[in-house]
Amino acid sequence: MKDHLKLTSKQEKTLKRLEEVLKQQNVRLTKGRLEILKIIIVKEHPTLNDIIAVLEETGHKVNVMSVYNTLDMLLDKHIIYANIFNGKQICYEPRVQESYHLKCDSCQEVHHIDHLGQFGEFFKSLTKSSEVVGWNCDHFKIEIHGTCPKCHEDLLKKNH
Ligand SMILES: [Zn+2]
Ligand SMILES: [Zn+2]
């Protein structure tokens, strides 16, 4: 069996936080489920196929249906989020309170930003505005489309 996934200290913290949320909901994290959650934390925005590939690489016996069931459960408990960036494939990521995605419509790259800095307050005020109509907001997702620096540069060169 190959080396297990190595989590950075930040990823370790994310895992602990999510495990705590699961515990509060009385969900037992079996070894298999834990491994899937770790993959989602370590690999940025993996698809179902990516997750299966990592499981196989690390010497796990893969049962696609049970991977699927685990993803379903984690989604249901708001432990992970599902995103569709290219209109086709679903990518998973750990739950975060605040984040947004920059998507390049030219090369399809997705950039994840979770430090909102001074804009954090602005985003929070957006959820506040929904409370006015009686909603209790859990989280929000924002996707900003455009061209990444590299594609933008290529485009300028082409038009020159
Ligand atoms: Zn690009
Ligand atoms: Zn993300």
TrEMBL record:
Requisite cofactors: Zn(2+)
GO terms (BP aspect): negative regulation of DNA-templated transcription; regulation of secondary metabolite biosynthetic process
Details of cofactor binding: Binds 1 zinc ion per subunit.
Molecular function as annotated in GO: DNA-binding transcription factor activity; transcription cis-regulatory region binding; zinc ion binding
Pfam families given in the database record: FUR
Manganese keyword on record: no
SUPFAM superfamilies: Winged helix' DNA-binding domain
Binding site for Zn(2+): 104, 107, 148, 151
InterPro entries on file: FUR (IPR002481), Fur_C (IPR043135), WH-like_DNA-bd_sf (IPR036388), WH_DNA-bd_sf (IPR036390)
UniProt keyword annotations, A-Z: DNA-binding, Metal-binding, Repressor, Transcription, Transcription regulation, Zinc
Family affiliation: Belongs to the Fur family.
Protein name per Swiss-Prot or TrEMBL: Fur family transcriptional regulator
Organism: Entomoplasma freundtii
UniProt gene name: fur
